[in-house]
Amino acid sequence: MTATAAPPTLWLDSPTQYGRISRILHWSMALLFLWQFTGMVLKVTLGLHPRDSWLLGTHAHVGFVLMVLMVLRAIWAIANIHRRPSYGTGFLARCASLGHAALYLLMLLVPLSALVRSWASGRGFNLFNTIPVLSPGTATPAIGQFINGTRETLGASIHGLLGWLLLLIIVGHIGMVILHHWVWKDGTLHKMLGRKA
């Protein structure tokens, strides 16, 4: 007995559910974000440093992978824009649309701000310490101070602030999924699980 290939339509989005490619991108990014924010929470609560923890030591590399996946996901979403499930109409639908737009924007800006910080510091960036992504350049202190924060901004790092804002929106996203699935019981979660509601 030979396994048959899945029909192409199973890989594409449809009005009733997200296709396999969308689901793979979504859930792989969800796992990587869990990894990232677990590391950052441990860093803040336990005062860990990347030298102390392999989890923290991978932060920049996993962040870059997340940025690449986000770009692929955005391209795939645009390619499927007329096929994918609709947000519906009305106030909540507009809120869902704006919430997803904010997620996409922050998923791009958070890793980009880290890359700009590396560039401004003159360090550069090698993915997994092997693949050159950003060549070391001349340090640019003005940009570095802007990205990392100064005494006037209470040392607030733009990368960190955007990262925690992203976490807040992700928590809101999860909260809405819980509301849709267990309170309203409208089958929204099934669209990303690939099941019929």
TrEMBL record:
Primary subcellular site in the record, as a coarse category:
membrane
Q: GO biological process annotations for this chain's record?
A: respiratory electron transport chain
Q: Where is the Cytochrome b561 bacterial/Ni-hydrogenase domain?
A: 18-194
The coiled-coil segments of this chain are none
Query: Cellular location of this protein?
Result: Cell membrane
So where does this one cross the membrane? 24-42, 54-79, 91-116, 161-183
Q: How does this protein sit in the membrane? A: Multi-pass membrane protein
Q: Which Gene Ontology CC terms are recorded? A: plasma membrane
Query: Which UniProt key words apply to this protein?
Result: Cell membrane, Electron transport, Heme, Iron, Membrane, Metal-binding, Transmembrane, Transmembrane helix, Transport
GO MF annotation: an example: heme binding
Give the required cofactors. Answer: heme b
The record's annotation in InterPro entries points to: Cyt_b561_bac/Ni-Hgenase, Cytochrome_b561_oxidase, Di-haem_cyt_TM
The family classification in the record reads: Belongs to the cytochrome b561 family.
Which protein is depicted? Cytochrome b
Source organism of the structure: Lampropedia puyangensis
